Amino acid sequence: MTTTWHVHDDLLAAYVDGRLDAIVGASVEQHLSRCADCRASTTPLVDAQLLARGWAGVRAAVESPPLPLPARLARRCGVPEPTAVLLAATTSLRTAWLVAAFLALSFATLATVVSGETMLAPFLLVAPLVPAIGVAAAYGPQHDPLESLVVTAPYGRTRLILVRTLAVLVSVLPVTAALGLLLPGPAWLAAAWLGPALALVPVLLALSSFVGPRAGVAVVVLAWSALVVFSLRGFPATWPVEATQQLAYLSLTAVAAAVLLVRSRLDRRIGAVL
């Protein structure tokens, strides 16, 4: 399309400097979009370094879009960007899951506080299971949006599972510990739930290596729920967080870690053979 007039130099300079009002500026911009000669006339008026920085910013925004919030937080904590991206795709680190976990823990704490020390069941039932469920949701192949990349990239699945497990624990345990301080009764109850909570995670990982995360978390949930309900058989209840039980959880953790180690080595050997 040809034009019969052109923008004079003073008006072009004012446009480049941003000194025109909205109406005149829009008119000049509309003309420039159609007139190649006037566009060429603006080239000497623009700072070359400023233009280069602007295009660099556009290129960076297109080629490297902003990372999601979990990835940005991980980067600020010193986590490498590839690992931060893998963490950002974790289902149990998304806002919806974190809010649901917080609400479940809050209601369990409230129910325990209202009921008193003789009814610790709500908190003891929920608190140790939240990390285990979060870990199960963190690496299930059916729900992992990066599954196709993980299986082809030189990033071991064991490493991915451990990194995401650690991220889930870091996101959930501090909140649970803070809520535990509100529990009635002795101060040690605020930390007593950590024993089963930290034991259920390696047990879940060990089970999942055989039957998958869905079946593994179902077994863990049913087993822990049965144990808590069974502790209600008499009053006052014998809660499954006493010192002797803590030793049992420590032993269970060691056994599950040994199973994970053996399974990991077997998988590496099988992968090397194939």
Report the uncertain regions.
none
Query: Would you report the number of β strands?
Result: 0
Structural class assignment: mainly alpha
Biggest sheet details:
none
- Assembly type of the chains comes to single chain
User: Which of globular, elongated, flat, extended, rod-shaped describes the shape?
Assistant: elongated
- Report, as a whole number of angstroms, the end-to-end distance: 64 Å
Task: Summarize the model shown.
The chain is mainly α and 274 residues long.
Molecular structure report:
Residues 10-39 form the Putative zinc-finger domain. InterPro entries: Anti_sigma_zinc_sf (IPR041916), Znf_put (IPR027383). It holds the Pfam family zf-HC2. This is Zf-HC2 domain-containing protein. It contains 15 helices and no strands. It folds into two domains: 9-63, no CATH class; 69-273, no CATH class. It has 274 residues and is an all-alpha fold.
Strand-helix topology:
Blueprint: H1 9-17, H2 22-32, H3 36-42, H4 48-63, H5 69-76, H6 81-88, H7 95-115, H8 121-126, H9 129-139, H10 147-150, H11 157-180, H12 189-192, H13 194-211, H14 213-230, H15 243-273
Helix pairs in contact: 5-6, 7-11, 9-11, 9-13, 9-14, 13-14, 13-15
